[in-house]
Amino acid sequence: MTFDRVPGVLGRIVRERAQDYADAPTDLGPARPRPRLFHAALAREGLHLIAEVKRASPSQGRIADLDPRAAALAYERGGAAAVSVLTEPRHFGGDAQALLDVTGALTIPALRKDFVVHPAMLREAAEWGARAVLLMVSVLGEAVGTYLEYAHHVGLDALVEVHDDAELDIALAAGAEIIGVNNRDLTTLHIDLRTAPRLIRRARDAGFTGLLVAESGYSAPADLEHVRGLADAVLVGSSLAASGNLERAARDLMTA
């Protein structure tokens, strides 16, 4: 695949990651059982938190010098249903060790959050103990269906991310079981909290019966009013990471 069509900051990051994996083998190895632990963690009744171990971002720069293991354990104590761990090194301060440290300590499932551009990244996620991986329609386009099959082959659930109507149509056609709606336009970095509830309703109207996750821009309980009763989970990173007290911030955010 080539990624020249991906615009803006997202395009630059994606092309960097593609170069990182240019020589990686594509072999996924034998099929692994898929326990669907990430799916199960979000499928229970109510709105659940996927709390993110996030040290930096292109929009904010350095956020916090988090110890991934300690941060993830704090989120777990604060009631998070799952943890998302950045492994992109240049712009988000992530790495493989961060994910390994988290998965070695938690009882709740972890998502590898990165800009997946190569099958090797899925094999790595499984080997590093993740239970799910992020697949971005804005990056993979129509190939997201193939990468969904790859993820399932190595035993992972997949959070298939969209941020507009056209991407949602692709995710639905690909057979996604978990769809995340990102309020942030990754080409402009602009956040619009109306995006998630609108596309979540559209997915349900189209007959989607899987899980739906609202992503980006949430920092207070009031921000969640428009996704309660619609989404199964929210994925929150920057506001938690910068809070100074991750356990309390996670618990307070989800207080209705």
TrEMBL record:
Q: Please give the name of this protein.
A: indole-3-glycerol-phosphate synthase
Q: Which PANTHER family match?
A: INDOLE-3-GLYCEROL-PHOSPHATE SYNTHASE, TRYPTOPHAN BIOSYNTHESIS PROTEIN
Residue span, Indole-3-glycerol phosphate synthase domain: 34-253
Question: Which keywords does this chain's UniProt record carry?
Answer: Amino-acid biosynthesis, Aromatic amino acid biosynthesis, Decarboxylase, Lyase, Tryptophan biosynthesis
Top-level EC class as recorded in UniProt? lyase
Question: What lineage, starting at the top, does this entry show?
Answer: Bacteria, Thermotogati, Deinococcota, Deinococci, Deinococcales
Any single GO molecular-function term of the entry would be: phosphoribosylanthranilate isomerase activity
Catalysis: reaction(s)? 1-(2-carboxyphenylamino)-1-deoxy-D-ribulose 5-phosphate + H(+) = (1S,2R)-1-C-(indol-3-yl)glycerol 3-phosphate + CO2 + H2O
> Recorded E.C. number(s)?
4.1.1.48
Biological process according to GO: L-tryptophan biosynthetic process
